[in-house]
Design goal:
Transferase(Phosphotransferase), domain 1; 8-stranded antiparallel sheet; 299 residues
Length: 299
C-alpha cells in the first residue's frame, strides 16, 4: 500500500526540503523514500510540496511551521492542518467540489505546536486566475467558468461551508475544463450545520470570487451577473438583489471583513479530528486515527 513516507519528523522534513529553496523556490526539488518532491510554494511559516510517488497519483503536502516565540498560543488549540483536514473531509463527504484530503499530522512539545501537515490529492489543471488573465478561454468558456464559480459557491453555502480563502487562484480547472472547478486551500474554512446563504460569511466569499487577487475584476459585467445567477440556482429576482449588495465594498474592505471572520473562526471551537494524525478513506468515508510515527502517503 505504502510507497512514499510522510516524514514523522516534520522538523527534519522542513529543513531537508528548504535547503535549496531560498535562492530559487520554483526549482527546488529532491527525493525522499520512494518518491520525488518539488516545492510549489514556500513562505516563512508554510511550505507546499508536490509529491510524485512511484506508480501512484501525485499528491500535495502542506507543512505549517509554528515559530517558537508564538508556540504558547497553540496550547489547547487545534492545529491549522487538523482544522483544514477536518473541514475538507466533511465537505468531501457531502459531495462538495474540494480536493480530497488524505492525511494530517501534527507535532507538539509540551503541548505546544511545532509543526503540522496535511496531504491532499493533486488537482491537475490551471488555476482560474491564471486562466482568466492569460486569456486562455473564449467568451463562451469564460461564461461557463463564471457560472461554474457561482454554482460551486452556491453549493458550498447551502451545504454550510464558509471557505474563507476564496480567490480565483484557489480554484482549479480540473483537467483544464472551465466548467469543472475544484477548490483548494481551506485553512480558515468552517462548516456549519445549516444553510449559510445570505450570512455575512457567504457574502464575503461571493464578493471575493468576483475579483482577482489584486482587486481587479475577474469577470466582465455579463459574466458577473451570470455567476451570481448560478449562485442563486437560477432565481433571477434573488440574483438581482444579491448582485446589488455586492457592489459597494472595495477589495480592501472585502479583505478586512474576511480577516475578521478568519480570526473568529480560528479562535472558535469548530470541528476537529482526534489524534496526533489521521487518515481519510474516501471510498468508505471513514476516518482513522494514526500515531505521529505511522503516517504514510499511499496512492
Amino acid at each position: 500500500m505504502t510507497t512514499c513516507e510522510l516524514w514523522p519528523d516534520l522538523d527534519r522534513a522542513w529543513q531537508s526540503t528548504g535547503e535549496h529553496s531560498a535562492s530559487d523556490p520554483g526549482r527546488a526539488s529532491g527525493e525522499a523514500a520512494d518518491c520525488r518532491w518539488r516545492i510549489i510554494k514556500t513562505e516563512s511559516r508554510s511550505r507546499v510540496l508536490l509529491l510524485n510517488a512511484k506508480d501512484h497519483a501525485p499528491m500535495v503536502l502542506k507543512i505549517y511551521r509554528t515559530p517558537s516565540r508564538l508556540a504558547w498560543r497553540t496550547l489547547g488549540v487545534a492545529s491549522r492542518a487538523n482544522r483544514e483536514f477536518t473541514v475538507m473531509m466533511n465537505a468531501h463527504r457531502r459531495g462538495l467540489s474540494v480536493v480530497r484530503p488524505r492525511y494530517w499530522l501534527e507535532q507538539r512539545r509540551k503541548g505546544r505546536l511545532t509543526f503540522s501537515a496535511i496531504a491532499l490529492d493533486f488537482a491537475d489543471g490551471p488555476d482560474l486566475e491564471s486562466w482568466l488573465v492569460e486569456g486562455r478561454g473564449n467568451p463562451a468558456q469564460r461564461l461557463l467558468a463564471a457560472e461554474a464559480t457561482g454554482e460551486m459557491l452556491g453549493r458550498f453555502h447551502r451545504g454550510g461551508l464558509f471557505w474563507g480563502t476564496v480567490s480565483t487562484r484557489n480554484m482549479i480547472l480540473s483537467g483544464g475544463n472551465p466548467g469543472g472547478l475544484v477548490a483548494i486551500d481551506m485553512p480558515y474554512a468552517r462548516i456549519y450545520r445549516r444553510d449559510i446563504t445570505g450570512d455575512a460569511d457567504a457574502t464575503i466569499d461571493l464578493g471575493l470570487s468576483l475579483q482577482l487577487s489584486d482587486g481587479a475584476p475577474a469577470f466582465y459585467e455579463g459574466e458577473r451577473k451570470a455567476l451570481v445567477r448560478a449562485y442563486c440556482a437560477g432565481d433571477a429576482n434573488r440574483a438581482q438583489a444579491v448582485y446589488a449588495e455586492l457592489r459597494p465594498p472595495t477589495h480592501r474592505e472585502w479583505k478586512r471583513r474576511r480577516l475578521l471572520r478568519r480570526l473568529r473562526n480560528l479562535f472558535s471551537k469548530g470541528a476537529t479530528s482526534p489524534g496526533p494524525g489521521g487518515r481519510y478513506d474516501a471510498a468508505s468515508g471513514d476516518y482513522r486515527v494514526l500515531g505521529s510515527n505511522s503516517v504514510f502517503l499511499d496512492g
